[in-house]
Amino acid sequence: MKIPETTADLQQTLGKEMSSKRALLIDRYPNARTSLRMMLSAMGVGLIDNAGTSADVFRQLRAHRFDIILSDYLLEDERDSQQLLEELRAQQLLPRSTVFIVITSERAYHNVVSVAELAPDDYLVKPFTAHELNVRLARALHRKRFFAQLYEHLDNGAYVEALGTCERLIRQDSGFRFDALRFKGEILNTLGSHAEAQRVYQQVLAQRAVPWARMGLAMALRGQQQMSEAEAFGQSLIDDFPEFIAAYDFLAEVQEEVGKLPEAQEVLQRAAMISPNNSARQRMVGDVAARNQDLQAAERAYGKVLQRRRNSSLRDIDDYTNLSRVMLDRGHTTAARLVTEELRRDWRGNQQGEFAALVMESLCANKEGEPAKAKRAVEKALILHEALKDEGRSAAVSEKLALDLAHACLVTGDEKNAREIVRRIAAENHENRIMIAQVQSIYAKTGKAADGQALLAQVGREIVELNNRGVLAARRGDVEGSVKLLMEAAERVPNLQFLVNATKAIFTLLERKGWDPVLARRGIRFLQLAQAREMRNPKVVSARELYQRVARKYGVAMVPFNASRTLRGKGSFP
C-alpha cells in the first residue's frame, strides 16, 4: 500500500470510507465544537458526537468506538488533554486504531513537550484552516488503516502474531517501512529477543540516525545485561536529542539498576523540568529521591503528583500516603496530618481510603508522642484490613501502604502482625531490591534492624525450597507432580516467578495431554495475576504466548489481554 503523495490522493483513497467514520469532538465551548463539526462534515465524516467535559468523554467512549477524536488542550476544571490521554490509555478506552489529535493555542515550550511526549497522532496549533486539518487527519487515518491488523494484535497482547504482521508489512512497497521496523524492534525487545532487536535497530541506524532507533538499541543492550553500554547509549542520546524525554527515563532506570541512585534522581529531575506535567515521572522522582534520603525533593515531587491528579480518574491513595510519609520523615508532622485529613475527606465512603487514613493517623500520633492514640488507630486499621481481605479486596491495598501498616504495628508494639504482613510482602517481592530495602528501612526506623534481616533471610530460604520442589519434580520427569507443586507455590506465594512458573507448567501439560477447562482456568488466573504485577516482563509475555498457542491448538476461545496500556510511553511504538 503506497502512501498517496497529495491531499487529493489521500481524499480519493479514503473518501468512500469517511461516511462510516465516527468522530468525537472535545471542547468546553459549543461554538468551537460547531466549527470543528463543519470541517469534518465537509470531509464527509458520517457520525460526529460532542463532549464538553471529561465526564462526557468517558461516558461516550464506554458506549461507542470512535475512529477520530479531536480534543482541545484545555478542558474543564484546569484539566488538560494530556491528563485525558493518560487516563484513557490507563483505562484502556483508547484503541490504537483511533486517531487522537490535540488542538491548542498553547505555545509554551513545556506544554508542547509534555503533550508530544504522550504521542498523540498529531498536534494542531490554533488558528488552523480546514485544509490543514484535512491534510493531517487524512494522513493519520491512512496510517491507521495500513497498520490496522498490527494494532489489533498489539491491543490483544498477541506479540508473535504482531511480529508476523510486521514482517509482512516491511516487505510491502509503502511509505511506512521504517515505522514497521520500529514496531518490529519494539516487539522483539518485549519478547525478550534482544539480540534480534539489536540487529533491527542497527539496520535502521545504518540508514537513518533517528533517536528512537538509538533508544531501542540501548534497550536491547540492557536486555542483554550490557549495562555500561546501555548507560552510555542513554547518555549520548540525551546529549544529542535533549527533547527526547523517554531517554531520560531509560537512563535513570539503568542507573538505578546499577546502584547509581543520585545520578538517576538528577536525570529524572532534568526530565521533569522539561516536561513538568507528567505525573507518573514526578512520582518516579519522588520515589528515587526518597530512597536517596533527599526528602525535600521527594516532598516537592509527591506534592506535584497529588496536585496534578487530584481531579483525575488516575488519582491514587498512594499519592496522599507517599506525601504524608515523607513529611513525617522530615519531621513535618502537622503537614502530614493535614494531608491525611485531606485523604479522608477526598476518599470519604471508600474503605481503602479510610484504611489508609487510619494507618497514617497512627504514624502521625506516634510522632506527636501520643502512643495510646497511635495504638487505637492501628487497631482500627487492622480490623479494616481484615475486612478488605474477607471481601477479596486486599490486593487493592498497595504494598507501600501495607508496609506502612507494618511500620505502625512495630511502633505500637504489635510485632506479631507486623511480622505477618512483612513475611507476605517479602515473599511476593523477594527479587525486588527496592521493596526489600523498604522492609529493611521500617525495621531500622524502629530500632529492630537485626530482626528485619533475620526475617528476610528466613523468607528467602523458604522461597528457594518452594521453588526447588517443583523444579526437581520436573527434572525427574514428573510433569503432573511438578504442576501440582508449582500451583501450590503460586497459591502460597503469588510472586512473579511462581506465577509464571505455574502458568507455563499448566499449559505445557495441557499441550501434551489435552485441554482441561478447570486446569486452564487456574493457569489463566495465574497469568492474569502475573500481568497485574508486570505485564511487559519478557517472562510474562512468554507465558502468555504459550497460553495463546495452546488455546489455538485446541480451538479454544482466548481471553483477550489488552496491551495498549503497557506499550505506550517509554520508547513506545509509534
Automatic annotation (TrEMBL):
Keywords: Phosphoprotein, TPR repeat. SUPFAM superfamilies: CheY-like, TPR-like. Gene3D superfamilies: 3.40.50.2300, Tetratricopeptide repeat domain (1.25.40.10). TPR repeats lie at residues 245-278. GO terms for biological process: phosphorelay signal transduction system. The modification 4-aspartylphosphate is found at D72. It holds the Pfam family TPR_16. Residues 22-141 form the Response regulatory domain. This is Putative response regulator. The lineage of its organism: Bacteria, Pseudomonadati, Pseudomonadota, Betaproteobacteria, Candidatus Accumulibacter.
